[in-house]
Amino acid sequence: MSFGRPPSISAGFSVAPPDRGSFPLDHYGECKDFMKTYLDCLRKNGSNSTPCRHLNRDYLDCRMNRGLMDRDEWKNLGLSNLAGDTQANVTKDKDKPNQ
To answer: Maximum CA pair distance of the chain?
Structure first.
């Protein structure tokens, strides 16, 4: 009797890229301050993310600017039309080149 791997695994294993939403860790802490500010806001608001959405946007913007995630439009990330946004800001975001 053999105690090797299960037969389903021996058929082969293929490597696939991570699903959308998976991205590299911030090993150098480049966006750590943005993350801490966002998490503090969540704690103060009982995990209600609505008042903290602008901080989430700042954090994701930091990650996109530093290549820690692919640049995407705010509407795809659920962060378009935040309080304080103007049409000029929304248009400016659309015009940003992918980095």
So the answer is: 70
Q: List per-residue pLDDT tens for the chain, 99 residues long.
A: 556 666 665 556 676 666 665 667 888 999 999 999 999 999 999 999 899 999 999 999 999 999 888 888 999 888 888 766 654 444 444 445 444
CB 34 within 8 A of CB 59: yes
Q: How far apart are CA 14 and CA 19, in angstroms?
A: 15
Can you give the pTM of this predicted structure?
0.63
Asked if 30 and 62 touch (Cβ cutoff 8 Å), the reply is yes
Residue 35 tokens read as: 């993350």
